[in-house]
Design brief:
heterodimer; A: disordered C terminus; B: alpha+beta; eight-stranded antiparallel β-sheet; globular; binds flavin-adenine dinucleotide; binds iron/sulfur cluster
Chain lengths: ~375, ~450
């Protein structure tokens, strides 16, 4: 068994973390919290959640069982952690609370069933298109893991990515057997999550992979920040492309939305911007961007459990992009893209960075200068 | 029909809840829960009026809820009440040509300022809590921010207000009393006991062309106070500043660079000054101020003052140290005429020694020479202890003798009726008269500001 990265916390440790917030109670984290924006009640903002936790946690098992709303009405976006002045944010302890709820058998059904099925079948979706992997080597140092979401719902993306990587001279080993374990982690099912993580890492080791390129920031966050230490490096596609010598002349004004899992949790902030600029975009910044970015409202099972609530945050983001006069919103995460596109309707297009980088958007066929990526 | 259903049908666009966890979150900072029976989050002004009509006719107490950031128990009524959370009423309309902004009660100063910045304008109210306080709460307490020296408190720039009265009627007031004697000043600083502020229109100002900052270290508080006085005498009063002593309780835990700086400079006291305006004059004023202050203390490396202003809402060295030490900060805001600051500081030192708080004590002056804050950095279990109460009592007595207790954080339910009476004087009598007239059933904020024992609440 490899060492788990995230240590479990005792009730006393959680309470002393909450004491930090209790010493300030400033509520600076309120307005950026998607859960607060969705429900508009103090109890749904981090300070309110912390007050409820402080009261309920010492009440033992009954208290813990009552914490389901506090724990799952949260997109685990990490925004409260970024702005917190005391170090007593809610985000840092949500995984522990979810883990305790799981131990008490109090995970919402839809999340628990989804997670168990996903860990069994290797995907939270009903299908997994692996045609993108045809012809790729079975062993090698660099792997590519598109993430289940792309494989099931947009198999074209892994195909285009493999093609693009090929132009950079990278022939990755396909990684596709296991889910990253995000659904189990988000539900709080820690044992299941670790079982899956062990299997995932064993697969990488067997294939000789030392570095994995990912398309999905959600998977990147899980693999990079929550997996046991394995010595394998995990990077997002935009990092690889930004390091390559690419150029283009797209000529669009784009508002770049940092996915929480990429900008805040994995500190990948400059590469997507550098890449967009290199291919000829003017990059407009949201007022809250980079590690401080506002959440699209889609993460951590929040959109599954509370679709209407989650839409509030994405709608705000779209409104801001329109006010900035952007031609398009660009992001690096499929979930963010879908949330934002749903909120945008036909008011403004929403793209993945990849769409611009590989020039597959109508009218922008030659996004890359000379149609080539220079190594 | 139970209360909840009644409120839901009266206010169809409101979120209404009496869920026990929701109620737990509706309490004052460091306060006890259990004072709120039900929460209403109105979606429209009509919702507010309907809730007031219902509560007034059933004599149910109501607490207007803003950001919940006041530090005086101003959300802790003496009777269980319905909380009316105003944060959804946050529409902001900028009128750049007439240099005005109209803001809903629930908007934050930060949101208002951001909307103004697009037009090259800015909001004059810039409190540390700008991201979480609301316009309604700020006006109810007449709060003050970092630009207080130049522009006064938040209420100073108000030109008109729309207010929901306890009987559920609505009134538009401006700065001149109307036929009933009601004006903006009736409601500014009235801590929500006379009406619910729905929206307010403010004068706004162009964003200054530029600004400069400078930071100084001093061996003693006296040197800092003398330095500030010398600035004022030379007509160089900073447009904003913050300066104070660093308590021993947290000094040892300052972040490493600051610790090194403090050691190198041998300082126990830090001051940052800020000047704004046009490029030339700002540069000249800052240079002149640096010359004056250099006679009293040592100039800090510029990077510290460069960091301070953009981070002024989160940055305050002692607080970082306090957080690391898991200490709670409790602030007491006072107004002490500048020539009595040192006498007051001396009395506070004696008081701290008598009550055992010497190591925890910090003195701070901010934004204007009479604005004086005493802070205690203490373990949470010492908050409210007998020695804490003794310190607080002695401090208030000394403040009332040499100046007054500042109202920016409200009187709420924390101050004794005696302190409120002595601080407010005639204003309290006026408030009581207005209360009898506007809220004969005493439903709004019972026990807040106007003591329960008064004839109004009986
Ligand atoms: C970290 C921190 C920093 C702070 N910095 C400053 C500072 O720099 N300067 C300063 O002055 N204060 C500061 N404060 C105190 C506090 O933020 C201010 O007093 C603020 O103006 C309170 O606004 P609120 O919306 O949070 O009011 P609340 O705490 O919600 O309410 C305060 C009072 O106003 C009443 N009220 C609320 N809304 C309305 C309404 N619409 N109509 C009528 N009555 C209403 C309430 O019933 C209550 O009695 C700080 C507090 C914190 C926690
Ligand atoms: S992690 Fe995000 S959704 Fe959860 S409490 Fe913090 S800010 Fe709110
Ligand atoms: S979690 Fe942090 S930012 Fe939020 S209220 Fe508590 S101390 Fe303030």
């Amino acid at each position: 068994m490899t060492d788990a990265k995230r240590a479990r916390l005792s009730v006393e440790e959680v309470l002393s973390h909450l004491e930090l917030c209790a010493s300030a109670e400033c509520s600076f984290c309120r307005d950026g919290c998607p859960s607060y924006r969705a429900f508009l009640l103090e109890s749904k903002a981090p300070r309110g959640k912390n007050r409820v936790l402080m009261k309920r946690l010492p009440e033992g098992d009954d208290g813990i069982r009552s914490l389901s709303t506090v724990a799952y009405e949260c997109s685990v976006c990490g925004r409260c952690s970024e702005v917190c002045i005391s170090g007593g944010d809610t985000f840092s302890i949500i995984p522990e609370i979810r883990a305790r709820l799981a131990e008490e058998g109090s995970v919402p059904n839809v999340l628990e069933k989804g997670a168990r099925d996903a860990m069994k079948t290797g995907t939270p979706y009903s299908s997994k298109d692996r045609s993108w992997a045809d012809g790729l080597p079975g062993k090698g140092k660099v792997g590519y893991f598109p993430g289940c979401n792309f494989m099931a719902n947009e198999p074209d993306v892994p195909k285009r990515t493999v093609h693009l990587l090929g132009r950079l001279g990278i022939e990755p080993v396909p990684i596709s057997d296991h889910c990253c374990g995000g659904p189990a982690f988000n539900a709080g099912l820690t044992d299941l999550f670790h079982e899956n993580a062990e299997a995932f890492i064993a697969d990488l080791k067997e294939k000789g992979v030392r570095k994995v390129i990912l398309s999905c920031p959600g998977c990147l966050n899980i693999l990079r920040n929550e997996f046991p230490k394995s010595g394998v490096e995990f990077v997002h596609l935009v990092q690889v492309l930004a390091e390559a010598d690419v150029s283009g002349r797209i000529g669009m004004r784009v508002a770049y939305h940092d996915p929480c899992n990429l900008g805040r949790k994995s500190y990948v902030v400059d590469p997507p911007r550098a890449l967009l600029k290199a291919i000829g975009c003017e990059v407009l910044e949201f007022a809250d961007s980079g590690p401080d970015s506002a959440c699209c409202g889609g993460g951590g099972g929040f959109a599954t459990l509370h679709p209407d609530g989650s839409a509030v945050s994405s709608t705000d983001r779209v409104t801001e992009a329109l006010e900035m006069g952007a031609d398009a919103i660009v992001t690096a995460c499929r979930t963010c893209r879908d949330r934002l596109a749903e909120a945008a309707g036909d008011r403004i297009p929403v793209y993945l960075v990849l769409d611009l980088a590989d020039g597959t958007i109508d009218g922008f066929e030659s996004a890359l200068e000379g149609g080539a990526v220079h190594d | 029909m139970p209360l909840l259903d009644e409120l839901r049908s009266a206010a169809p666009d409101a979120v209404v809840s009496a869920d026990s966890d929701d109620l737990l979150a509706y309490r004052d900072i460091h306060g006890e829960s259990g004072r709120i029976s039900c929460i209403v989050v109105p979606g429209t002004n009509e919702d507010v009026l309907a809730v007031l009509r219902y509560c007034n006719s059933h004599e149910i107490p109501v607490v207007p809820w803003g950001g919940g950031t006041n530090l005086a128990g101003a959300l802790t009524p003496s009777r269980r009440a319905v909380a009316v959370d105003m944060k959804r009423l946050n529409t902001i309309t900028v009128e750049p040509d007439s240099l005005m902004v109209k803001a809903g009660a629930g908007a934050t100063p930060d949101e208002v300022d951001r909307r103004l910045r697009v037009h090259g304008l800015r909001f004059h109210h810039d409190p540390w809590s700008r991201r979480s306080a609301t316009i309604g709460g700020a006006l109810a307490l007449d709060s003050a921010g970092t630009l207080y020296h130049g522009y006064g408190r938040v209420g100073a720039e108000v030109v008109s207000m729309t207010v929901a009265l306890p009987d559920g009627s609505i009134v538009d007031v401006d700065n001149d009393p109307d036929g009933r004697g009601l004006s903006t000043s009736t409601f500014i600083g009235s801590e929500g006991v006379l009406g619910l502020i729905l929206e307010a229109t403010f004068m706004v100002h162009p964003t200054p062309e530029t600004y400069r900052t400078a930071g100084f270290g001093f061996r003693k508080l006296e040197r800092m106070v003398d330095g500030l006085q010398a600035l004022a005498d030379a007509d160089l009063h900073p447009d904003s500043f913050i300066g104070g002593s660093i308590p021993r309780a947290v000094a040892a835990l300052q972040p490493a660079t600051e610790r090194a700086m403090m050691k190198a400079l041998g300082i126990r006291c830090g001051l940052f000054v800020y000047y704004e305006g046009e490029e030339g004059p700002v540069g000249e004023r800052t240079s002149a101020a640096v010359k004056v202050l250099s006679k009293y203390g040592k100039k800090m490396p510029q990077k510290y003052s460069d960091e301070w202003w953009p981070n002024r809402h989160t940055y305050f060295e002692a607080n970082q140290g306090a957080v690391e030490a898991n200490l709670m900060t409790h602030v007491f805001d006072l107004i002490i005429p500048q020539d009595s600051t040192l006498e007051m500081a001396g009395r506070v030192d004696v008081l701290a020694a008598e009550t055992g708080f010497t190591d925890a004590l910090s003195h701070t002056l901010f934004t204007a020479l009479d604005a004086y804050t005493v802070a205690l950095y203490i373990e949470p279990n010492r908050f409210g202890s007998p020695e804490f109460r003794a310190f607080e009592h002695g401090l208030n007595e000394a403040a009332l003798e040499l100046g007054t207790v500042m109202r920016i954080h409200g009187y709420g339910s924390h101050f004794s009726p005696d302190i409120v009476r002595r601080s407010l004087g005639d204003r309290l009598a006026e408030l009581v008269q207005s209360k009898i007239r506007l809220d004969p059933n005493g439903i709004l904020n019972p026990g807040i500001l106007i003591p329960d024992s008064s004839e109004v609440d009986r």
